[in-house]
Write a structure and sequence with these properties.
With 290 residues, this protein is of the alpha/beta class. The protein has a single domain, classed as Alpha-Beta Barrel (TIM Barrel), CATH 3.20.20. Helices cover 36% and strands 19% of the residues. It contains 9 helices and 15 strands. The strands form 4 sheets. Strands 1-2-5-7-10-11-12-13 form an 8-stranded parallel beta barrel, surrounded by 7 helices. Strands 6-9-8 form a 3-stranded antiparallel β-sheet, with no helix packed on it. Strand 3 and strand 4 form a beta hairpin. The longest helix has 14 residues. It is globular, with a radius of gyration of 18 Å. The relative contact order is 0.18.
Length: 290
């Protein structure tokens, strides 16, 4: 009854995880290698951030993105590439002047997507969220969202609409009604991030219930909720996301030795539930990506 399940692998993210696990990739070569290993394990899409090779800190450096993407493309692997536009939305008010950010973290929309317009991946993430994100604010104003949405549509890149709570789904539907996104819209339901929607069946299914009827959707949970949430999404007819951006462990105290083991387990769960794992070609057809 269901389409094949698209597995997205979020390869590295931008969290301070490199000190916790030696398997989190940092350099373009490491990130690309992990992306290709995830593809071999069953991922149809790889979601990519880049990091400063010297420090492991998150980066928006176009050179790093270009190198990572070139390695993946030059390999001939058909995996779909999804580049983030999330970096540049972090705000922590300065104690003496709350109008100022206490550190680097905010960027103009054009700065957040210049690598997408230059490299033209198949997909880019687009956060539909202003929220408390742990101890800082994650700021995406409607105008910034519209700005990025218009530009990536003109570039022929499909946005993955990342929603972290019910109000974000409502805003995405409002923007969809203004013609900003091509059909079918692609939603990523993000659960378990403090302080967004919790990683519970009721929270995920409440967001899923608000989606447009023709939407394609995927979901993930962070940390220990990664596999329960991906199993729920799969059983509910959605697609799934796993990877070291969201979770470092195979089980309590056992680090995942890279992204491929996480993807392989996700593929096993998909098959045990009775669904098929989507190939990159399947993903292109499902998402209407040429």
């Amino acid at each position: 009854m269901y389409k094949p399940v698209i597995i997205t692998c979020a390869v590295t993210g931008s969290g301070d995880t490199t000190h916790t696990s030696p398997y989190v990739p940092i350099t373009p070569e490491q990130i690309a290698k992990e992306a290709l290993a995830a593809s071999a394990a069953g991922a149809a899409i790889v979601h990519i951030h880049v990091r400063d090779p010297a420090t492991g800190a998150p980066s928006r450096d176009l050179t790093l993105y270009r190198k990572t993407v070139e390695i993946i493309r030059d390999s001939g692997d058909p995996v779909l590439i999804n580049l983030t536009t999330g970096a540049g939305a972090r705000f922590s008010p300065d104690e003496s002047d709350p109008n100022r950010n206490s550190g680097p973290g905010m960027a103009r929309p054009d700065e957040r997507m210049n690598h997408v317009l230059e490299l033209k991946p198949d997909i880019c993430s687009l956060d539909i969220a202003t929220m408390n994100f742990g101890e800082h604010a994650f700021v995406n104003t409607p105008e910034h969202i519209r700005h990025i949405a218009r530009a990536v549509r003109e570039a022929g890149v499909k946005p993955e609409l990342e929603v972290f709570d019910l109000g974000h789904v409502a805003l995405a539907r409002h923007l969809l009604g203004k013609g900003l996104f091509q059909d079918p819209p692609l939603f990523q339901l993000c659960t378990g991030i403090p302080w967004g929607a919790p990683a519970t069946p009721r929270a995920m299914l409440a967001m899923q219930d608000m989606l447009p009827a023709d939407a394609e959707w995927s979901a993930f949970g962070v940390g220990a909720s990664q596999f329960p949430m991906m199993a729920l999404a799969c059983a509910a007819g959605g697609h799934v996301r796993v990877g070291l951006e969201d979770n470092l462990y195979m089980s309590r105290g056992i680090l995942a030795e890279g992204n491929a083991p996480l993807v392989a387990r996700a593929a096993e769960v998909v098959r045990l539930i009775g669904r098929e794992v989507a190939s990159p070609g399947d993903a292109r057809a499902i998402l209407c990506i040429g």
